[in-house]
Amino acid sequence: MSEARRLATYDDLRRLPDTMIGEIIGGKLYASPRPAPRHAAASSAIGVDLGAEYGRRRGGRGGWWLLDEPELHLGPDVLVPDIAGWRRERMPRLPTEAAFTLAPDWVCEVLSPSTASLDRYRKLPVYARAGVGHAWLVDPALRAVEVYRLEGEHWVLLASHAGDEPFHAEPFAEVELDPTEWWADAEEGAETPPGT
Questions:
Q1: 3-class secondary structure, 44
Q2: 137: which strand partners?
């Protein structure tokens, strides 16, 4: 008779080295390396673009808390999206605890070869169960963005964008986004992905 699998605990996360990002999904511990430069550059540029318009800066629309790598405690699962946003009407103040138990309104996962499968097939279903309203999957290698909206219990792909063409995307559709800086380390003369 096989021994039952031990469920991962928060202590397992604490024991990971600082060079790793730990998450618990379905009772299993997932440890991923810190983001590579291309990944970090895309995530930072997206945060700057959205923060300028929707964060606390003067002259923007405001109305959102936009945070890099927040630790989310969504039921028994512990996830760390690259960026997450909460409408201030739902979360007027930041919590005093280190982790968030209120699901965000939007998450952004920047895909890398080591995390793409985890982000797409493990984390997106948890975000759906928690009621996150929108999700973006951003692939710097393909220079592509997939925009999803939660409808009922399922994600619906609203749009795919590739290359450097400006676009609008829920839940920030009021503003035209220019992804040129998101792909800051793209090679000079690199081919633009099809569909641009």
A1: helix
A2: 109, 146
Within its chain, how far is the Cα of 154 from the centroid? Answer: 17
Q: Is the dihedral of CA 83, 110, 20, 124 positive or negative?
A: positive
Q: Which domains does the chain have, with CATH numbers?
A: 35-183 (3.90.1570.10)
Q: Which residues of 57-71 are buried (b: 16+ CB within 10 A; e: fewer)?
A: eeeeeeebbbbbebb
Cβ atoms of residues 80 and 70 within 8 Å: yes
Residue with token string 């997450």: 84
3-state secondary structure of 185: coil
| pLDDT (0 to 100) of residue 196 | 34
Structure tokens at 48: 């700057």
User: Between the CA atoms of 180, 135, 29 and 152, what dihedral angle is there, to the nearest 10 degrees?
Assistant: -170
pTM of the predicted model as reported, rounded to 2 decimal places: 0.89
* Average of per-residue pLDDT across 89-108: 95
129 pLDDT more than 90? yes
Side-chain-side CA neighbours of residue 20 (13 Å): 12
pLDDT digits (tens, 9 = 90+) for 5-25: 789 999 999 999 999 999 999
